[in-house]
Amino acid sequence: ITRGKKVKEYGGWVEQLKSLQPQVIICDECQSLKERSSNRTKSTHYLVQNIPCLLNLSGTPLLSRPAELWPVLNMLWPSEFPNFFAYAMRYCKAKRMPWGAWNFNGASRLPELHRRLSALGMLRRRKVDVLKDLPPKQRTVVPVEINLSEYIQARDNFLEWLRQETPEGADRAAKAEKIAQLGYLKRLTAKEKMPHLIQWIDTYLEGTEDKLAVYGIHKSIVRGLYQRYQRQAVCIDGDTQQERRHGIVAKFQTDPRCRLFFGNIVAAGTGIGLVAAPHLLFAELDWVPGNHTQVEDRIHRIGQTRHTEITYFIAKDTIEEKLCSIIQQKQEIVSAVLDGKRVRDDLDVFSLLTKHLIRESKGLLRK
Known about the structure:
- By secondary structure, this protein is α/β, with parallel strands linked by helices.
- It has helices at residues 12-19, 39-48, 70-76, 84-91, 110-120, 127-130, 149-156, 158-165, 167-174, 177-207, 219-229, 242-254, 289-299, 319-338, 349-366, and strands at residues 24-27, 53-56, 95-96, 102-103, 137-144, 212-216, 233-236, 260-264, 279-282, 308-315.
- Strands 5-10-9-6-8-7 form a 6-stranded parallel sheet, with helices on both faces. The chain has a two-stranded parallel sheet with strand order 1-2. Strands 3-4 form a two-stranded antiparallel ribbon.
- Helix 2 links the parallel strand 1 (24-27) and strand 2.
- The radius of gyration is 22 Å and the shape is globular.
């Protein structure tokens, strides 16, 4: 909305909109307001003050943890949720860290929070309840074996490995070694998966006439795959200009020669429909379960007439196995707050992975 740094200096669109004295404001995709300190959230908060009617809309208003929901709740019901710290102490399992700061990444009293939101006016409608003709979606996990030699070196002696690979980044990484290590391990895992991804996509294209949407995180992965298939593909990532998105999506939806869509999980995760594709492939995993469900809904939405399949590519014995577990734990928190219980279409990637690995180990034992 604005690039202003302080509420009183917002100016621009915020002041112009405010001058119109709107009586109703609708914030679509309100999960974008989850960061309390962002300019977007502060600007929106300033804009909606004293508005008679405010509607915040989202299929995934809570992406991973209760702390993210407070800005939206504060805008909707300021008298009920006036103070973040009080909210965090009750619903975010707040704890004091050794260096004095507070950690609000936890979750507590979730059934109470769900009941409270439902009583205040949260209206939740799930596809299974209102779109009974929408074909179901099915998730599949494909564990793949990658070359682990470089991965193990980076995992066990990260800074030494980093000095060999990118010496200029080693000193910076040392300041936040664990965070940097996780990022590099994810990127390295994705790089090692590339041959398997290409083989899977080639097999798909040869075995069917259907279209396919492929999503990833890192630019080198998304763009690398797109460049290989660009004669029959389109791509939206963080570098794609907003005005070009509609044309790119339209080409994928209508051009029979364009069979592949490559997208960044965040940049192309909302605001577009890809129902021409009955199949979605996750080349990489994000930390946030809501980002995955948003992407799944690009193909599983009104206009889809076929069963939809979602395939998750997971590198065995890597950080991605742990990431599957984290995603599922966060999804259970989201379900508890929004639905009051686990729901049938929870993001159960870790369960699927575990079942697959158990079946695989039993097969090896029989051999």
